[in-house]
Design a protein that fits this description.
Layout: H1 21-41, H2 48-55, H3 59-65, H4 69-92, H5 99-114, H6 121-128, H7 143-158, H8 172-189, H9 196-215, H10 222-235, H11 239-245
Helix pairs in contact: 1-2, 2-3, 4-5, 4-7, 5-7, 5-9, 7-8
Length: about 260
Amino acid sequence: MEEKQDPDAGGQPTDKPAKAPKSEQTRALILETALRLFKERGYDKTTMRAIAQEAGVSVGNAYYYFSSKEHLVQGFYDRIAEEHQRAVAPILENGEKDLTARIRGVLLAWLDIAEPYHEFASQFFKNAADPDSPLSPFSPESEGPREAAIEVHRRVIRGASVKVDPELAEPLPRLLWLQQMGLVLFWVYDRSEGAANSRRLVERLSPVTARAISLSRFRILRPLVTDVHDVLSDFMPTAAGMAASGKPKRATRKS
């Protein structure tokens, strides 16, 4: 297998699992430059050559860290996911047990982190909306940030005082992630100052979601619980496959 070389190590072979600080700085510089140019010129009109030139690195160096513009956006997704995980730590670990407060805090934290990128978020979305695009939140390439977000919602449920129906214990965090994706779509189109409408949506949506989760444990709602479980089983685990084939997996319904 060909040994990959780190251009910041003078072109010498490297098998270190972790990048040197200079390499991390170069990677961050390329990503920051790309985000700035996406904002100034638009995603479609920004080339890897232009990004490399603005960052003061060679085109080969830029491609070493990001093999395409799509991978640059994936780097952006990874950054957002990492910043969100750090931001929600105080919310989820401060002893707050109220589910409404936990859902609200996590969603508002995402809006806070994403706000600097709001101006050009729609440029990403028109590409992410393509089911064949690696920028789709359901794509195999997006698995890392997608699973990180789902884990955040898993922690939301795990630390709350509410009792969750056992049938929903596993798929529920994915359902909450889908709710977050709905918020993201609303936020992309939200032109209110400071995305105020998106924040109001979170305030209205959080108690409704928490109440629905709380009520889901009652037997009278068991058919609804089963239906939700079946829908998630059909579509969520095979989302990446759907992007490739366009055909959802059909799960066997339990009698």
